Amino acid sequence: MERSPGEGPSPSPMDQPSAPSDPTDQPPAAHAKPDPGSGGQPAGPGAAGEALAVLTSFGRRLLVLIPVYLAGAVGLSVGFVLFGLALYLGWRRVRDEKERSLRAARQLLDDEEQLTAKTLYMSHRELPAWVSFPDVEKAEWLNKIVAQVWPFLGQYMEKLLAETVAPAVRGSNPHLQTFTFTRVELGEKPLRIIGVKVHPGQRKEQILLDLNISYVGDVQIDVEVKKYFCKAGVKGMQLHGVLRVILEPLIGDLPFVGAVSMFFIRRPTLDINWTGMTNLLDIPGLSSLSDTMIMDSIAAFLVLPNRLLVPLVPDLQDVAQLRSPLPRGIIRIHLLAARGLSSKDKYVKGLIEGKSDPYALVRLGTQTFCSRVIDEELNPQWGETYEVMVHEVPGQEIEVEVFDKDPDKDDFLGRMKLDVGKVLQASVLDDWFPLQGGQGQVHLRLEWLSLLSDAEKLEQVLQWNRGVSSRPEPPSAAILVVYLDRAQDLPMVTSELYPPQLKKGNKEPNPMVQLSIQDVTQESKAVYSTNCPVWEEAFRFFLQDPQSQEVDVQVKDDSRALTLGALTLPLARLLTAPELILDQWFQLSSSGPNSRLYMKLVMRILYLDSSEICFPTVPGCPGAWDVDSENPQRGSSVDAPPRPCHTTPDSQFGTEHVLRIHVLEAQDLIAKDRFLGGLVKGKSDPYVKLKLAGRSFRSHVVREDLNPRWNEVFEVIVTSVPGQELEVEVFDKDLDKDDFLGRCKVHLTTVLNSGFLDEWLTLEDVPSGRLHLRLERLTPRPTAAELEEVLQVNSLIQTQKSAELAAALLSIYMERAEDLPLRKGTKHPSPYATLTVGDSSHKTKTISQTSAPVWDESASFLIRKPHTESLELQVRGEGTGVLGSLSLPLSELLVADQLCLDRWFTLSSGQGQVLLRAQLGILVSQHSGVEAHSHSYSHSSSSLSEEPELSGGPPHITSSAPELRQRLTHVDSPLEAPAGPLGQVKLTLWYYSEERKLVSIVHGCRSLRQNGRDPPDPYVSLLLLPDKNRGTKRRTSQKKRTLSPEFNERFEWELPLDEAQRRKLDVSVKSNSSFMSRERELLGKVQLDLAETDLSQGVARWYDLMDDKDKGSS
């Protein structure tokens, strides 16, 4: 192939005496030189060719005058001609420069050895043996292989462009339906590999190579759009850069490498010589724009974080993670300031020197940030923070360029580059860096943030970020990587789904996905003509607060006018997932019944692990160490650290709430029961399942009812983490498999913020049905003054089907233990602790082989009767049994300051101590419909004795339901009326209007009559007159041999208020007369006329018992 005549003379192997005489290496002059021995050629053909060349040149110049003639013919100004001439001259100049650059590059590659020797002034000699580059090796053998393969690679590229790329381009736009490649030639100049560097891999399952590639090719690619008579192409291209090749994973079978990944660490240098209509892009001003656009396209395909993956084995696992692996880390770049910058602004034609208006560009790979402009300042203060993802260490560089802002073209003030490996080694790098290519320095603080899968570190990171001043964006606490894999059974695109202005027929969609977190949205590519698309793409997001943020996924048609499905996923759900990973199918809403999306979501916490960083302590907590300030050895690295006197829990300790869930009723449930083979339609036997905070609850079954009333209360301990959901499902109880009756979800954010929610919720995924729930957040209070009211309120709102309601929340922080007994006298145990309250228990982690374990764990328990319950603690050794135990009555907490004990406790074994914090909080309901009042009454058959009001009563509990306001007794007055001869019974009567129920609580009896030698076995029988059937009869449990039994049992009757006021309540206290007899001994009774009783008060009163003949007197 001959060179261009305008190339000029160049050194050739023939001019070098020591060079071998290879004909292929001769310059063009050698090939064009006439052979004197040939006898000469006839002059005719040469003269004819010369004449034809002259005519062609004349014709071209004549064509140049045609625009001038046309401009004069239509009366245009000569300015148009001059403008066109300027465009042509500019284009010609740029084109000539590119051609000269291409010729120089080709000459460099052809005569590399001679030109290098000439440049180093070592002509006729080779480089000395001591000159070597140990890191980078020349791989000429690899270049010979590439040269041999190059023609076949050209055939592959031609086939790829014609059969794959061209159809994709034609299908992407209706205006490009006639797009074709008319010519695809890679030329004769192959890509060259200048050097190869092999990195010692940090992981044994991969091989890492850096290829310094240089391509100066005579490639020719022509395209045509016949519909618009448009032709364009590329003739010649230069590409220089470092291509990283990763061979992973290494496997124990042929071909030993699972896949090959390729990418450019930094943006390569690109220079393209356009032909055809794209010559317009060679015009000055457009040339750089065109190359930038092409470079952006290449960067989106092959520059980090993007990479090309070529699997070498079938069924390769984790292809998505190989194609888009997690970043190695995050660098937080604090662009603080610069100093000593050069002044670029000039005034009065340079006579007056001004300053500069500096701004900075920060780059790492494809990630670019621009600071604000500081006007008229040579020592600017930016104070801005940026966060970048680092994918390859070593290799990637942080680049900062400083410019002076000008109206036309910004002036360059200098740049600095830094390998990210130095930041990784230092963890925190804070320094002034000199600017190259200019003067001055730039001040950067660089922090390496590691990626952790430990959700427990999140609160520490959030706490630290709150004290960090950052702009323009707040600091991130985590990153989220979403691997978008595929979708199934998306709905077809029909004309009814489109807006009226868009007319489309029924067809398969062209789905694409939009993923959004707050104001950041990323889009996938569009997959054409399928309702089961496969994307296999990855998206990365920075997260400021994963506890409150959520990811919104929209599956749309490529026109963005039609939504094919949607999904909203709270990121708090990831915090409870193993390794912070969700890898599953997700059901799409507003889509087809079987439409779903497969994604893998990976969250990582950004943790700054540096000795320079001290996370702030929790305000309000006691000091971690109680150290004598006069101790001269304080802080010594030789002495043992001082023993702490108090615990140091984290900021989340003691911040839990209790969520009280009241499942009331449902309406319009669907009927699932069928009889006689489905001929007879029945009803349903519904029950409710609740799921929250890793716990599940289940209501009782209501038989044969489509409008059931459960009236059950459940309690669960919750934290303030946003994004939590209460999942509710309703089922029909069957003998084999329970039928689904609907589901609904409740976002707890509203309840946690407002404290109360009372709503009818529509059941989803079923034709009909709704569910009535009441949710209340109970915040523990560190005061015992309201405990009696809480116990009384709980007794009033207690339902028959529910467990006893909690009156307090116990929070335990188990920090450490010391001086535990040794195993067999010489070996250290592997201790762990168990905490038990009632039927609930918590086990700590096991600390291996130590007599002074540090657990740093917390647990919470619901307490129903704080006066009688206790905390049971056991310290056990793995395989050695009990090392010590402790019993802490909760009554001690009730008299402690702030209901909290924080100190060392001695174990019962006499050897060993534990440091723990026990904190009790009283659960006061603000929405129970009950108001505290400090009155107590005593009621007899003849008169009602009022007890005097106690001074210093507790504050009133506010109520959101005025119609349910009740008055409760605080404590029994010491000045009580004496009991009658038969004793007294203590009752609470009130009407619960929300539930439409008459409620009676039998608290107990006192001073009962003893007829025989032994005390009676009393119980209380209640009968709602005038009915005397079983439907209105209630009975307490029986107490053995006591004259003052305590029952505290609740009974309910469902009836309207007006009917209740027409009834009488007959209360009888009885005792079994003997073991063998069915007779009951009447100890006393009282009959209450409900019309004369204030059922809105709900006050506990003592009533005198009478004989059966005197019962009517009450």
From TrEMBL:
Q: What segments bear the compositional bias annotation Gly residues?
A: 37-47
For biological process, the GO terms are:
endoplasmic reticulum-plasma membrane tethering
Official protein name in the record: Extended synaptotagmin-1
- Domain (SMP-LTD): residue spans on this chain: 135-313
Q: Quick check: keyword Glycoprotein in the entry?
A: no
Domain of life, source organism:
Eukaryota
Q: How does it sit in the membrane?
A: Peripheral membrane protein; Multi-pass membrane protein
Quaternary context: Interacts with ESYT2 and ESYT3. Interacts with ADGRD1; inhibiting the G-protein-coupled receptor activity of ADGRD1. Interaction with ADGRD1 is abolished when cytosolic calcium increases, relieving ADGRD1 G-protein-coupled receptor activity. Interacts (phosphorylated form) with SLC2A4.
Q: What is the lineage of its organism?
A: Eukaryota, Metazoa, Chordata, Craniata, Vertebrata
Just give the chief location class. membrane
Entry keyword set: Acetylation, Calcium, Cell membrane, Endoplasmic reticulum, Lipid transport, Lipid-binding, Membrane, Metal-binding, Phosphoprotein, Repeat, Transmembrane, Transmembrane helix, Transport
Instruction: Give the gene name.
Output: ESYT1
- InterPro entries, from UniProt? C2_dom, C2_domain_sf, C2C_KIAA1228, Ext_Synaptotagmin_C2A, Ext_Synaptotagmin_C2B, Extended_Synaptotagmin, SMP_LBD, Synaptotagmin_SMP
GO molecular function of the protein, one example?
calcium-dependent phospholipid binding
